[in-house]
Design brief:
Strand content: 25-35%
Oligomer: single chain
Order of helices and strands: HHEEEEEEEEHEEEHEHEEHEHEEHH
Number of helices: 9
CATH architecture of the largest domain: 3-Layer(aba) Sandwich
Largest sheet: 8 strands, mixed
Structural class: alpha+beta
CATH superfamily of the largest domain: Zn peptidases
CATH class of the largest domain: Alpha Beta
Shape: elongated
Number of domains: 2
């Protein structure tokens, strides 16, 4: 059956796997990558590593790491009182957007609920002009208090529970596009590589706990110590209230990071591949810490030449994160073509101390 990128993405974003609890995503990706990679590994923190061996290996064998995080933002049960679940932030969730959202409470069994707050008629005048804090939000499961108490306890996880929807001809919206749109691009890359030859081993890594401190990228990069790495994450797309200087246009191709977190010669080589394939890349100027897995990978072991490729996203860290399918597909394709371009001398080509070839006289 032909690979359907949109169907695959829908499966990924509708799955429930907040930071530190990514097991459901590991299961989904093992099934999706089965047959596309030669071997699976996991590091001790839980990142999933799919290893695709080179079709024409050279000696010494070279490795490229592709890193996209599979965790998502979430919440946690703070208290259970009279059948109502009180909540707190776990990683990156915006309390302004939680009112009236549908959620899943992961207790002894998973329970669907809605996020509620005090009706506006009963609010004091000063409270009608502000958003409720997490401490003022509750989840209504619609169940008797005794049944809630039997199934939910303090510390249980809560995730958004919304379907992916299509917007217009090419755009989709849902939860966890950050960063499962990039995980989907890795899958697309692995499919594309099935018809290409490549001399480098590919380490496709779905990292854990990015939202809680880039932790999976740190351990996976240290364990694998690849020759080069490309981190994959989302970036801001233009929308009202977002500074246009810090955005990449949706549907106009992946973004590529520019700044001290990224190896400039690796950037040049990726851009050259994209240009020859007529795939547009958009510069994303990041003058300091990128806040992505690239920040952790770059300084693993003795240092790893690292680049960042991105999918433009509207409404980041919300239940309606919006991406363009064309950007996801193009990201997967440029990754595969870049990997196919790698040769035995590539590390020499990006060596800081390499001198330009002398011109013939």
């Amino acid at each position: 059956m032909p690979f359907d990128l949109k169907t695959h993405l829908k499966m990924l974003v509708e799955a429930h796997a907040p930071s530190g609890h990514e097991a459901p995503m590991r299961t989904i990706l093992r099934d999706a990558w089965n047959g596309l990679v030669d071997e699976f590994q996991e590091d001790k923190l839980g990142s999933l590593i799919g290893i695709k061996r080179a079709t024409k290996p050279t000696e010494p064998r070279r490795t490229i790491m592709l890193a996209a995080h599979m965790d998502e933002i979430g919440m946690i049960v703070r208290d259970v009182v009279d059948g109502f679940v009180f909540i707190d932030n776990l990683t990156g969730t915006d309390n302004r957007l939680m009112i009236a959202q549908t959620v899943m409470v992961h207790g002894r069994r998973s329970l669907s609920g809605i996020v509620a707050s005090v009706p506006p008629h009963l609010l004091k005048a000063k409270d009608r002009t502000r958003y409720p804090s997490f401490g003022e939000l509750v989840i209504d499961l619609g169940l008797p208090a005794l049944e809630v108490a039997e199934n939910v306890q303090i510390g249980d996880l809560i995730t958004l529970d919304v379907p992916m929807i299509e917007l217009g001809a090419t755009k989709v919206a849902g939860k966890a596009m950050d960063d499962r749109a990039c995980v989907a691009a890795v899958t697309a890359c692995l499919h594309e590589l099935q018809r290409l030859t490549h001399t480098w081993d590919v380490l496709a890594v779905a990292t854990v706990q990015e939202e809680s401190g880039l932790l999976g990228a740190k351990t996976a990069a240290y364990m694998l110590n690849p020759d080069i790495a490309i981190a994959l994450d989302v970036t801001f797309a233009p929308q009202p209230g977002v500074d246009s200087d810090s955005t990449c246009e949706m549907g106009a191709g992946p973004g590529i990071g520019v700044g001290p977190n990224f190896h400039i010669k690796l950037y040049d080589k990726i851009r050259d591949t994209a240009k020859r394939a007529e795939i547009k890349l958009q510069d994303d100027i990041i003058p300091a810490a990128s806040g992505t897995d690239a920040w952790a990978i770059q300084v693993a072991q003795a240092g790893i030449p690292t680049a960042l490729l991105e999918i433009p996203l509207r409404n980041m860290h919300s239940p309606v994160e919006t991406a363009d399918m064309r950007d996801i597909e193009r990201l997967g394709r440029v990754l595969a073509l870049f990997i196919a371009d790698l040769d035995a001398d590539f590390l020499r080509a990006i060596d800081w101390d390499a001198q330009p070839e002398a011109q013939a006289t």
